[in-house]
Amino acid sequence: MKFSNPRTTAVFEDWPFGGSQRCRMEFKIExxxxxxxxxxxxxxxxxNRVGKPKKxxxxxxxxxxxxxxxKTYILEYNQVYKMIHVRESNLKYSFKTAYPxxxxxxxxxxMLYHDSSAVSQDINIH
Length: 126
What we know:
Elements: E1 3-7, E2 9-16, E3 22-32, E4 36-44, E5 54-55, E6 61-67, E7 72-78, E8 83-88, E9 94-98, H1 105-113
Antiparallel strand pairs: 1-6, 2-3, 3-4, 4-5, 6-7, 7-8, 8-9
């Protein structure tokens, strides 16, 4: 699996919402000065009803990326365990976890570090 387009916000106007319904889905990365970053997913239905935001747990760094399978994923870096967690866009299921030494680890790290102006200077990788 290859990932591209790392970003901190993403809006999809035609997201599947169950059955034949579609909605507007917004993903954004929230930053907290001591806890880190997490992804928040919010839906807005056709009649402008905003759903309750779904939130992931805090990680050191997070990015929204596109997979080459046409799906959206969330990359999360945990500084304590030095692992990169790839989460599905529903924020419930894990797609993959990579540790230092894994073949995909360096490529995933580059996706996280791309456009990471909020990254603390004390993060040591590897």
